[in-house]
């Protein structure tokens, strides 16, 4: 019965641990999925997985905001209005680009005609067509500049005081304009075809020597191919931007880890510097002591070598004899000095009377020496 109870308790505890472990792994996995969703929803937000893990309430707030805000930070309503405005802007832009493209194409046609006219002979009707088109473009441009729009002040004076009607009088003849309008679609189509074929040859240089019909056939697929290439370039650009953001995050993470490593190294240096410095100083002291001892021994060796080179056996024996003689003379002098000091001490016992006699004796000795010197000099002079 005890064994059965123990087995039952062990089984219940084991089951509880397994359930807790499974629930823990499920919660961790769920948090990881939530973190990845939040980071994917806010790619421009400077937040890491570690920040979300340390601030779960902030993570929940961001997860709730994903239902109302897009990846750029705009609300759903504002995004809808922005998309409508963007569509309207794109339609207006298409209209403007269409007119601007047509205007630029006509200008290119006129410029090519002017260049061609300088290098070759052009038929008169073609000259009339391009001259009429150039004048019409110039008059239309001037009229547009003189015609005030809703965005300008109508009270401003006109350029040079001209009115649009005055400029319209400079239009070419009506028959020439009508003839130009009839020929314009054909000439425009021919020019655009030439430009498209040039673009095709630029895009695929290997197709330059093929026939015109084949080029026209391949030209039908050029727009699709360019659209694919454009989308591919945009996808590469987006991928590059994502990689740049990832690189910035990794760089920031790397710098934070590097700063932690530097702080750890600083701590190790501050904690162990004194101990290491003491051992190092002790080793340096032992080294310098040994070096000083070696230098002293070397000095002694040099001194002995100098003495051996200076004092030979003959010099040493001579010095020994001189020393013995000097010591003997020194001993004699010391004995004489001692005897004199004894006599002087015996004379000092007599007192001041002996001092007076000694002074008188000194004077007499000096007089005797002077007289002897004078007698000697006198005798020497007489002998001469």
Automatic annotation (TrEMBL):
Entries under InterPro entries matching the protein: HAUS4, HAUS4_met
Keyword Zinc: no
GO molecular function, one term: microtubule minus-end binding
Keywords tagged on the record: Coiled coil
Coiled coil start-end: 316-343
Highest taxon listed in the record's lineage: Eukaryota
Keyword flag Aminoacyl-tRNA synthetase: no
GO terms of biological process kind: centrosome cycle; spindle assembly
One annotated Gene Ontology cellular component of this protein: HAUS complex
Protein name: HAUS augmin-like complex subunit 4
């Amino acid at each position: 019965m005890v064994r059965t109870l123990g087995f039952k308790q062990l089984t219940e505890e084991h089951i509880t641990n397994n359930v807790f472990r499974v629930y823990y792994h499920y919660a961790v996995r769920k948090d990881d999925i939530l973190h990845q969703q939040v980071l994917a929803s806010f790619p421009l937000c400077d937040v890491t997985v570690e920040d979300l893990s340390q601030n779960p309430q902030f993570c929940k707030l961001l997860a709730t905001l994903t239902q109302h805000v897009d990846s750029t930070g705009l609300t759903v309503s504002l995004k809808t209005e922005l998309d409508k405005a963007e569509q309207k802007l794109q339609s207006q832009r298409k209209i403007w680009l269409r007119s601007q493209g047509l205007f630029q194409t006509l200008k290119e046609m006129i410029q090519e005609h002017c260049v061609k006219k300088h290098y070759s002979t052009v038929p008169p009707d073609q000259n009339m067509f391009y001259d009429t088109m150039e004048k019409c473009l110039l008059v239309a441009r001037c009229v547009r500049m003189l015609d005030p729009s809703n965005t300008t002040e109508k009270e401003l004076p006109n350029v040079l005081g001209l009115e649009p009607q005055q400029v319209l009088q400079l239009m070419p003849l009506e028959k020439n304009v009508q003839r130009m309008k009839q020929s314009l679609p054909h000439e425009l189509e021919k020019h655009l075809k030439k430009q498209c074929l040039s673009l095709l040859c630029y895009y695929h240089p290997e197709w330059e020597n093929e026939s015109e019909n084949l080029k026209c056939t391949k030209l039908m697929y050029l727009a699709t191919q360019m659209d694919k290439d454009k989308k591919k370039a945009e996808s590469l650009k987006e991928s590059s931007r994502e990689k740049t953001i990832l690189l910035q995050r990794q760089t920031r993470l790397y710098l934070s880890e590097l700063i932690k490593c530097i702080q750890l190294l600083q701590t190790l240096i501050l904690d162990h510097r004194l101990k290491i410095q003491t051992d190092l100083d002790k080793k340096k002291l032992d080294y310098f002591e040994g070096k000083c001892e070696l230098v002293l021994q070397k000095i002694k060796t040099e001194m002995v070598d100098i003495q051996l080179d200076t004092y030979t056996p003959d010099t040493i024996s001579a010095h020994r004899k001189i020393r013995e003689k000097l010591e003997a003379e020194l001993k004699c002098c010391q004995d004489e000095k001692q005897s004199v000091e004894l006599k002087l001490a015996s004379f000092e016992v007599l007192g001041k009377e002996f001092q007076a006699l000694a002074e008188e004796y000194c004077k007499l000795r000096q007089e005797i020496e002077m007289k002897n010197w004078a007698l000697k000099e006198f005798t020497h002079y007489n002998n001469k």
